[in-house]
Amino acid sequence: xxxxxxxxxxxxxxxxxxxxxxxxxxxxxxxxxxxxxxxxxxxxxxxxxxxxxxxxxxxxxxxxxxxxxxxxxxxxxxxxxxxxxxxxxxxxxxxxxxxxxxxxxxxxxxxxxxxxxxxxxxxxxxxxxxxxxxxxxxxxxxxxxxxxxxxxxxxxxxxxxxxxxxxxxxxxxxxxxxxxxxxxxxxxxxxxxxxxxxxxxxxxxxxxxxxxxxxxxxxxxxxxxxxxxxxxxxxxxxxxxxxxxxxxxxxxxxxxxxxxxxxxxxxxxxxxxxxxxxxxxxxxxxxxxxxxxxxxxxxxxxxxxxxxxxxxxxxxxxxxxxxxxxxxxxxxxxxxxxxxxxxxxxxxxxxxxxxxxxxxxxxxxxxxxxxxxxxxxxxxxxxxxxxxxxxxxxxxxxxxxxxxxxxxxxxxxxxxxxxxxxxxxxxxxxxxxxxx
Length: 436
Hints:
Layout: E1 2-4, E2 7-10, E3 15-17, H1 24-35, E4 40-44, E5 53-59, E6 62-68, E7 74-78, E8 93-95, E9 100-101, E10 108-109, E11 115-117, E12 137-143, E13 146-150, H2 158-162, H3 165-169, E14 176-186, H4 190-196, H5 203-206, H6 208-213, E15 221-226, E16 230-236, H7 242-253, H8 267-270, E17 302-308, E18 312-316, H9 322-325, E19 328-337, E20 340-350, H10 355-368, H11 374-390, E21 397-399, E22 409-410, H12 419-433
Antiparallel strand pairs: 1-2, 2-3, 3-21, 4-13, 5-6, 5-8, 6-7, 7-12, 9-10, 10-11, 12-13, 14-20, 15-16, 15-22, 16-17, 17-18, 18-19, 19-20
Helix pairs in contact: 1-12
């Protein structure tokens, strides 16, 4: 069916016109009708601990600055001086003290956005009113420890925007703080990356490290769309196969692992310990899925990926352990062009973690995620290859048709099904159709 200019999508069957990945016109519509109208993750509240602490983001090519005031409130403004439009800071984060001052003509603003200083102000005449030139505010709200901003939100509140995802997300984002960041750019459309984190059909094929270490990683799991436009991907962590993983690493890297030493990254999962459930496990003797590991080892535990419309992905640690609920990474994708995208990843941990626990989390995540990580490199390569392919005439449509039962999936849906992507495109199409 025809849904908007240059976009043909049959959501009932999950058939998506590949032009949405290559059309400059559709890209412009996405910026105007999706990115300026939706809530976007900016930072955590603990990035803004003290008055003057700030964080900057870009939404639809509009620079935005989030800052904590002296009154403890977190506010957001367009990161542009009201005099000539120069950005007030080009840094990603930092502390501005008590004043935001433009480097061009030294116009100064307080932490509430009021214009407080104009050099040689008399030149503007007696009718000049500072109150008319305060920083332009941007909608800002928090959900537990996460800070979100929106240029022109189409819903009354952030909670409304989160919809069915709010209750599911809440346990993961309380009592956390960032401990490391990484960013990189790939040559591909932003949707390829976000689709990938709603997809567990690819893991056993794309990620060699997963295939070698986690045999049958996609054998048991579920996925579902959470209105409006969000999703949950969940799977049961299968038994580990360290010898197979070590043999594969040795074969492809030439490094000798015969002494049993394993590389950073999977070390926390491979740590030896007493048999039985992990510490703090609450899933029952069989992990809550009707069966533990063979031989009386630890039970299967759950892992999740949460995707928030339009461009935030969250992957916490194992769901059934206290540590897993407070450790993981947040990831945003920012479109820089129809075929160019920046990925920003933030590693977080429990606020109660000591330095050693945080260092371990950083090292383990760095081995798999980020611009150099074993898994992220695979995903970046896949997105780049998709972008090259969709520009050709190999086929007009991409298929997101796995899962034949009606609805938005759930615990009866197979982890390889594509209910989560179809929920994304359902809401994606709604925004692009809305001309208001």
